[in-house]
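Protein Record: Sequence and Backbone Structure Tokens
======================================================
Scope: a single protein chain, as residues and as a discrete description of its fold.
Tokens: labelled as protein backbone structure tokens, with as many entries as the chain has residues.
Position: the record begins directly beneath this header, with no further notes in between.
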Amino acid sequence: MTASRTRRPLVRRLLAGCAIATVFALAAPGVAAAASADGPAVATGTAGALPAQPPGTDPPPGNDPPPATDPPPGNDPPPATDPPTGNDPPGTNPPGSTPAPNPTQPRPGFPGFTRPPASPDPAQIAREQAEAAKHAEQVARELAEQAKHAEQAAREQAEAIQRAQELAAAQAEQAAAVQEARASWDSRGRPAKLAIVRADRVEVITEGRLVRNVPRTPGAVTFGALDRYLPDDWITVDGDTAFVDAMVVLSTGTNLQIDEDTKTIQLAGGPEPGDAASIFTGGGRLTLTGVTITSADRETKAPLPDTAAGRPFVEVSAGGRLNATDSGFSDLGSPAVGAGEGNAGLRFNTGSTGSLVRTTVQRNTIGLVLSASTDVRLEEVTVSESTGDGLVLSGDRGTTMDRVRAEGNGGNGVLVTGENSDRPITGFSTSGNGVYGLAVVGQTGARVTGIVTEGDKAGGLRLSRVTDVVVTDFTATEQPIGVFTHVNSSGVLIEGLSTTGGRRGLVVEKSTHGLELRASTIADARVAGVAIGGKEVRLTDVQVADSRAGVRVERGAGDVQLTKLTVEGGRDGIVASAGTTGVVVTDLVANNVGYDAVRSASPGAQIVGGTINGGATGIDVAAAATIVGTTIAGSNEGIHSRSPELVHADKVQVDATDVGVNALPGSPFRLSNSSVHALEALRGVIEQQGVNDFSLPPLNILGAIGVPLILLALVLEQVHAFRQRRFGGTRRRHLPPIPVGGG
């Protein structure tokens, strides 16, 4: 087209030139005629007149006059003059006379003479004009024909250029397709067979070579249609089961739909990574309804073991979508090989999305991974029996979970890691997992709520390297540890924690700084309800029941405040070890603790307010301590001190059954403004200040002591009576008779 446009102005210029030439040709005879209409030119001379020659003739040869010669100087004859007539004006010839020659006009045959033009012939002019017009028309036809040929040539050249460009574009597209196919093959583990479903074609790739391009009708493609596009042995259908022996990749804009007509899809695999016939959504969409996708050995068709490097998997790529309803993903995913990472059975990658509804994920390496995905919906999903973690949330956004269960996985039931996300961690339960039910690692600002865990082997919840994390309404049943915080976690708030059974309800490891536990209940912990090793730990409105120890403050802990703690039953209430600092117990309520309601070896511990009922010992201190405003009732021993440093009890009220205050030798003790009632109110060296009240224990306590003794006596009496009946008791002995007549 460009060449044609370039030649058209040239043709127009040629036609315009021909037209101008024709106009000049037609106008030339008219100009000559106009010149002749002015009359013949008159030749004049200085030596007399010559007879006029006919137009267009030359003077006869040999008659030319001799050339004029100038007279010698001084001999010039006088000029000839005509006699005047008296009527002619000067300078005119009389009528009928021969005009006088003009001495300045060249004569014929002399230099400078110009022959007057011949008179024009109108017929000749017409013939010449017609001839010129005919010639101009011929020239115009020839130019038009040339222009036509030039335009045709330009058009053919433009078409050739366009064909060449189209061929080059097709070749470039083919080269790009080959290169893209190769890149896709490289990036996906170099499978032996690879099918790429595009919007208008299906590419068949073998060992990295694009061997076939199969055109297809745009739109959704079914599994049966995909089978027709591929070589015969790549997909084998047997009833409602399809065996797939090629990796399948969807490109942008494609949609692969698989429904109940194909209930089971077996993806081939083997010992090498290139054996895996995995599915990648690419930028396309995969829709499953009532379908189970699993792995299969090429020979036996049995599911592949989790150790097979070529076990296939399903991956939702960037921009892709997977929607699965009433479906399953089982025995998928490959282990890590060398320095590389393994592949999860089902994975949503960056920018992918979709939904899993009433779907099971079972026996995969890692069950399900959401890695920087967007708006994935999980509803009634069960992830179970994975080799590693069950569900992994890593930097995902907008994820919603409802009735999700993680059960019996080899690692954590649910692992939250990677980039921080504003997605709430909620809507699932865990049980029987090999590590923790839920592990939150390296997160800032995470929100954990409404999680129920049971029977996981390591514990319910692990918080590692977290900051400003809030946990609410977390339930742990029969967990070794209900909640475990460690590795420099800080700013943790736990509210509404409920643990039952297990070894420990809450463990605050020594690297944790800043944790608060509020409004929580812990029951039946076999070691401790709460074990504190970190710093800046606050417990408020916490209830611990029937645990071996309510709260243990371990060596290295510091700045621990226990406020409104309630301990019911169990062996010990609060145990503060040596090597701790800043322990403050406020408004403690301890009821019927078996041994010590408070046992402290923490220097400078403070016990403020609170009530202790029952138990062997109310407060047992082995380091300096301050006890203020505490009430102890019904304990065998009220306060027991073995501290080498001063213990000060102020405004305490002790009603014990045995000893009120017992200060062992070498243990200084100061008692001020207090009331101590017991069979032995004070034992040891005790400094007294202020107004103190010492007496026997109240009658109700004496009565409490006497009633068991009376009951014991009655029981012993009954046992004695039973023994008497069992072994014959005491029989009455009769004296022998006295013989009659004896003396």
Q: What stands out?
A: Helices lie at 2-36, 122-187, 223-229, 699-726. The first strand starts at residue 193 and ends at 197. The first helix runs from residue 2 to 36. Residues 106 and 112 are 6 Å apart (CA to CA).
